[in-house]
Amino acid sequence: MEGTTGTAALDDGIVAGRLHAETLRTNFADLHAPLSAHEARIEAERCYFCFDAPCMNACPTQIDIPMFIREISTGNPLGAAKTIFEQNILGGMCARVCPTETLCEEVCVREEAEGKPVKIGRLQRYATDIAMDEDARFFSREASTGKKVAVVGAGPAGLSCAHRLAMHGHDVVIFDARPKAGGLNEYGIATYKTVDGFAQQEVEYLLSIGGISIELGQRLGEQLSLDGLLGEFDAVFLGIGIGGVNAMLADGSETEGVDNAIDFIAELRQATDLSSVPIGRNVVVIGGGMTAIDAAIQAKLLGAENVTICYRRGKDHMNASDFEQELAASKGVTIRHWLQPKRVISSDGTVSAIELEYTAIRDGKLTGIGHTATLPADQVFKAIGQTLIEETADGLRIEGGRIAVDKEMRTSHDKVWAGGDCASGGDDLTVTAVAHGRDAAESIHKALSGAAR
């Protein structure tokens, strides 16, 4: 294989250094190069600035997309950034990771008319990058209210909530179990989608408003309890994600070499030297969502020779967008449908192959049909969904496996709000989590303001 090191090329199994460092740098470069000023102006001029703005209606954070694009077209990128940040303070990351092809760009009139939407995501990145590079600050903190709010989880929902609360003058302490803030943006996004430590840059930019402190290494259910927080703070927001991983219902699923895809992605995001990350020669990923796609592509970029995604349903059932599926195929990933894991085959205690059963929908239910296929595999990644660790909800009402919330993100406890993946309505999107956090903050502010009178 071109670019392999001499040692790794001769080794089987899961090893580091299958590709040279320079090849890895190329492989994991920015997925989309940022637009130049000229390119941004030209792209912005393609916008029809629709009165009814279907793109804005499709955005979970309701950014005024026609407005910010018009501001770019008139040479005012900082004005555009302000328009974006007013609704989505994590607009820089969302510009990089949002599935715009199934949100704003899918309903763009240019897409409807000619199959080529305005590049809304890349225009959003253009504006927000300029604002962050210039350290342009658009929001100031109101006078202190004397109220304290605990935010559990330093991911998109928690950060968004904290920023909006700080704007209103409340003091916020963010608690997070990991050694870095950022949550999904820091640990769960493919490395090639957010390069050069952008997640931490965005956290620092957000914190510059003041009034927010972060305490790391603090996990709900271990170092923290909900009762303890309620005794110390005037309100609590939970943005804890869904940390449990669904079990792979296959014999031998605990075999060495069978790992969680989310752990693999997190390891890559934190690696200072990608050539130190071990990868198999034959990798199989089980799942059909974005995590499966991200894990599979990155396995290929690290030097795996054969990477196959196996999904138990058909192509149209996959949660991953068509764009992401096509991206995976362009990188050499094979996607096979109507297959579910049946048995992990091991040799000397480590995975050597995986047996899969063909599936079909019969009488409205997915079922195995008895026929099987076996794929060689020295590494298997599970990307089959996550579940809420219910003990972290600590007595709150659960609905559909998530914390039940009302339209203002309030839980069954009148001093507790929740948002992001852990809450009902969460959908594993950064942009949705940001909207949840922002809306919860407004509800908390209203409640605290009422209590103050």
CATH class of the largest domain: Alpha Beta
Spatial arrangement of strands, main beta sheet: 3-2-1-4-17
What's the architecture of the largest domain in CATH terms?
A: 3-Layer(bba) Sandwich
Total number of beta strands: 17
User: How many H/I helical runs?
Assistant: 17
- Rg, rounded, reads 23 Å
Sheet bearing the most strands, described? 5 strands, parallel
Number of domains: 3
CATH homologous superfamily heading of the largest domain: FAD/NAD(P)-binding domain
Which blocks of ≥5 consecutive residues have pLDDT under 50? 6-10
Q: Class by helix and strand content?
A: alpha/beta
Kindly state the mean pLDDT as a whole number?
Answer: 94
Give structural notes.
The chain is α/β, with parallel strands linked by helices. The protein folds into three domains: 37-133, Fumarate Reductase Iron-sulfur Protein, Chain B, domain 2 (Orthogonal Bundle), CATH 1.10.1060; 148-243 and 388-452, FAD/NAD(P)-binding domain; 246-382, 3-Layer(bba) Sandwich (FAD/NAD(P)-binding domain). Helices cover 35% and strands 19% of the residues. It has 17 helices and 17 strands. The protein has a five-stranded parallel beta sheet, with helices on both faces. Strands 6-13-7-8-9 form a five-stranded parallel beta sheet. The chain is globular and about 65 Å long.
